[in-house]
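Thread title: Can someone regenerate the structure for this chain?

I was given the following input by a collaborator and told the matching structure tokens would be attached. They weren't. Posting the sequence so someone can regenerate them.
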Amino acid sequence: MSSGMTSSKHRKRILFLMVVFLLLTIVMISRLAYWQIYKSSWLEERASSQWVLSVPVSPRRGNIIDAKQRTLAMNKNADTIAAIPKQIVNAQAAAKVLAPILSIDEETLYSKLSVNKSQIYLKRLVDPEVSAKVREQNLQGIIIVKESKRFYPNVSLASHVLGFSGIDKGWSGLELKYDELLQGNKGAMRFGTDDEGQKTNGVEYIRPEDGNTIELTIDIAIQSIMELALEKTYATHNADGVMAIAMDVKTGGILAMAGKPDFDPNSYGEYDEKLWRNPVVSDVFEPGSTFKIITMAAALEEGIVSKNDRFYDPGYIKVSGVTLHCWKSGGHGSQNYEEIIQNSCNPGFVLLGQRLGAERLHKYITDFGFTQKTKVDLPGEGSGIMFELEKMGPVELATTAFGQGPAVTPLQQIRAISAIANKGLMTTPHVVNKVIDKDNNVIYEFKDENKTQVVSTNTAEEVCRLLESVVVKGTGKLAFIEGYRIGGKTGTAQVAKPGGGYYSDNFVASFIGMAPADDPQIALFVAIRNPKGSSHQGGRIAAPLFGEMMRDILRYMDVPTQLTTEKPSFDNYVAVPDLLGLTAEKAAAQLWAKGFITERDGIANGVVVSQTPAPGVKLEIGQKVVIKTTSQSGNSESFDVTVPDVKGLSLKQASMKLGEAGLRIEIDGSGVAVSQDPKPGEVVRKLSIVTVKFKK
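Best answer:
Regenerated them for you:
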């Protein structure tokens, strides 16, 4: 009994052990299968990482090209100096050799070479001479990796649009906005290593995948025309800044966009960061009289104005106890609606605004896109500032109707007038036309899905006709171009103070228009911020800038001229006399005799020490001449100045130097000053013109 029981226990014990052994075997086989089948790739990667060193290779960033496939941003081959710390025998000695070549502090370099990493960059994108010197040292553990460096062949041209790229990513402009599409995918150089981390023979090269090419709507020829004209204006008027934007009215494609001052994206770090901003996209300012286009379009669309209506302007209008003035002292008298826009008459537009009422005017402001961003494909877009409908009282309604109070961006303005030019159909401004991959496949093409009819075709065509009359008969005469029908509107706006109110001596002069007026193809906006010198009025300084720019653009685009265009008359324009050194009374008498109105700034019985416009400038009879007076003696010698030497200076530097001497500049060419007339050292009358020739 006892023996049988013992035998049974042994069998059970053996059976138990066999079951346990079997279970353990199954577990071991399962784990082995798991690692061999499901985790094999992970194991291989882990093993490979112990024996293979991988150095990343950056892809070539995609090119940016203009509408005619001309290169705006590209890449240049460049070497990067890297290290494999495990392979370096003597880090201190290597640092001593490399420090002067790489222009890196020896201790800093030693710290880099001593880190516990598989590889590390020492200096990226070095000049060829530097990499050649490193190669000559033949240092173990130091490698040279081929990369590419961003290059902008046109230097500062379109710099605000393009932005710039750092070593591995875009930092501003299109380079930032489309960074992911431009970057591509990294490749690698893989080296075999032994158990001590030393490099063995054999290199595997995994080719990087280059970035996509971005094709713009920008035409570099139009961009060049724009920037040359802006550069001259920026210097001539010693302005705080100038800007312009040209747009295809039918597609919304931006043909050119620029602001001065700008920067060279090849050396962006040498410039103040403020210059990286794109003022056309980001800047917000009161539009002034260019906004009257919106009020007029709204009035025509609502049918609240007719050709028989008369608007009387005595020079001012009172609204809720506030007196609002017209720019012309004494006013324009009785006018029809065509004349109030020709004359840019503030009281006339106040009356239009009152007929519309706050609700309807606000509706059209919203419809024309001034209460929201344009959604342009560029970073940093600013937002317009408008009175909320609930806060638009009688005075706010009145000032908004003629463009004072609201603040808008240049982009919002160009989109609005393009809608007028495009038979009332508003498009979306954009600078990217398409994106093309490395195999030349189009992977993106702009399609405007947000077109909006903001006013009827009849209204839009009537506004175009009115704007043409502004250039032929009104304040925009200096924008006229022989052989082309031009429509446009002047703007002069005081700059608002941060705490409220307006600066008395800080203005934005602007002009916005389209051509040809009977079948518009292109819209153009120009603005000059805080001009100093002969004038601050949009009709005096922004209109001729617009005309020069638009003329050259139309010629480049092969837009045919017309022989029967109506021409503006300048019969009522006369030259402003030289008033320097005269008493205020004598100066006012001379101006009255010429048909001008005097505005005095300074001592009532003083002597004239400056005047705006300058002597010789042709001004329309009835306009205002500002004289500044002091108590100083009227000695004529105090108004004689010695002409300074400006040779070798840039346009802006030469303009500033002559301006400081009390002289005006006339610019011939671009680049640096090579000659001038009158010559340095000659004594001339204050406010005289010095013609300076520039060459690149």
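The two ends are 120 Å apart (CA to CA).
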